[in-house]
Design brief:
The strands form five sheets. Strands 11, 12, 13, 14, 15, 16, 17, 18, 19 and 20 form a ten-stranded mixed beta sheet that branches. Strands 2, 3, 4, 25, 27 and 28 form a six-stranded antiparallel beta sheet that branches. The protein has a five-stranded antiparallel beta sheet with strand order 1-9-8-6-5, with no helix packed on it. The N terminus is likely disordered. The radius of gyration is 19 Å and the shape is globular. The chain has one domain: Glycosyl hydrolase domain, family 43 (Tachylectin-2, Chain A, 5 Propeller), CATH 2.115.10. It has two helices and 28 strands.
């Protein structure tokens, strides 16, 4: 049964030195760590099954009742809820799962709820899905048998009309490469990890990270829509405007060059954007990222007034990435996401002076094996106008 709990304070060694000065170069805002981490979800205390782990950046929605839903799921998607982000109850019910289809044309294999938006104050919830076609799991579809070689990723959509109790897949795609699986197999390819959604000038925006594939250059793609309930309405930045549309490569042939994005923030958004919010006082947008390398690695942020032009990145805090971890290092961290418990917005798209940085902590990791013992932690931040 789910256990109701308040967040308990933890102080892992990896975060004892979090008060390092902010790296210069992010004009407008200074973001610093303001306190020790707190445990939101711990595997040993809260997991409903061995595969119940935080495996995506945290997102939140507030319902008309005032109840808050927190999503940071594995591909068997579960939800935590409570009166606020500081008092949550993890539910064992699976609210959504992909069909694990062996047909890449369905874009419905293993699927994570990766971004959320309520257009009507919490009466309905739109979920943008990170869908992984994992070819190595399906007979005859992966010559090497290796996960990374046969990973074909797209973004899809689901909707809940019962307060997050269940989600149903919406037909269509949000974003897919203009290439079929058989055309790009050999590396992990596609659009990954939607950043969370923010509003600007009457439109909704989010980032998705693209790997190199044919006409698609690698980097952070900026997507925009004015019809959030329609997965096919998203358009991508093409270098001068939002003129790039996405197509289903299995539905009709088309010139790939017209159906890929032009990544934004070259040299500044240097890593995948995992969280996107707007600072209420200044109006500036904040993009949070992770450099997973050793040495200068950690969580970083950049600022923008228009989502297209970005400041130089500034380091928020050091953190060892999962791929760079070596024995003797502190536990690796991943999936940074920023939410403000005091945000008046039902989608938590805005932050004030004292938000929380959510991240997944990997416990008991060994080289090449991340393991399933993972906790979701929240770290207090302070944001000030420079």
């Amino acid at each position: 049964m789910p256990i109701r709990h308040s967040i308990a304070l933890l102080l892992p060694a990896c975060l004892m030195a979090m008060h390092a000065p902010v790296y210069a170069g992010a004009p407008g805002l200074a973001v610093t760590v303001a306190g020790p981490p707190a445990a939101v979800f711990t595997k040993t205390r809260d997991a409903c099954s061995p595969d119940d782990i935080p495996d995506a950046p945290a997102r939140a929605v507030r319902l008309p009742s005032g109840q808050v839903l927190l999503f940071a799921p594995h591909f068997l998607n579960r939800v935590s809820s409570g009166p606020d982000l500081m008092h949550l109850r993890h539910a064992c019910r699976i609210v959504f799962a992909g069909a694990e289809s062996a047909d890449p044309a369905r874009f419905d294999d293993r699927t994570w709820i990766a971004a959320t938006w309520t257009p009507d104050g919490g009466r309905s919830i739109i979920a943008v899905l990170h869908d992984e076609f994992q070819g190595h799991r399906h007979a005859g579809l992966c010559p090497t048998g290796q996960y990374m070689d046969c990973w074909y990723n797209a973004l899809a959509m689901a909707v809940s009309r019962d307060g997050g109790g269940s989600f149903a897949r919406v037909p269509g795609i949000v974003a897919a490469l203009p290439y079929r699986y058989s055309e790009v197999v050999g590396e992990h390819r596609g659009y990954f990890n939607p950043s969370g959604i923010v509003e600007l000038d009457g439109s909704l925006h989010m980032f998705a990270f693209a790997t190199r594939a044919g006409a698609q250059a690698p980097g952070n793609c900026l997507l925009r829509t004015t019809r959030i309930a329609d997965p096919g309405a998203w358009r991508a930045w093409d270098g001068t405007g939002f003129g790039a549309s996405f197509i289903d490569p299995y539905a009709r042939p088309a010139d790939p060059a017209g159906h890929v994005c032009a990544p934004v923030g070259a040299g500044r958004l240097r890593w995948p954007v995992t969280s996107l919010v707007r600072h209420g006082q200044s109006g500036l947008f904040l993009a949070f990222m992770q450099d997973g390398s050793r040495g200068a690695g950690g969580f970083w942020y950049a600022t923008s007034a228009d989502l297209v032009h970005w400041s130089e990145p500034a380091q928020l805090m050091p953190a060892v990435g999962l791929g760079a971890w070596q024995p003797g290092d502190p536990p690796p961290l991943a999936y940074p996401s920023v939410l403000d418990p005091s945000s008046p917005d039902a989608n938590f798209q805005t932050v004030g002076a004292a938000p929380l940085l959510y991240a997944t902590r990997f416990n008991g990791v060994t080289p090449g094996h991340p393991g399933m013992d993972r906790d979701l932690i929240a770290i207090p931040l302070h944001i000030s106008v420079q």
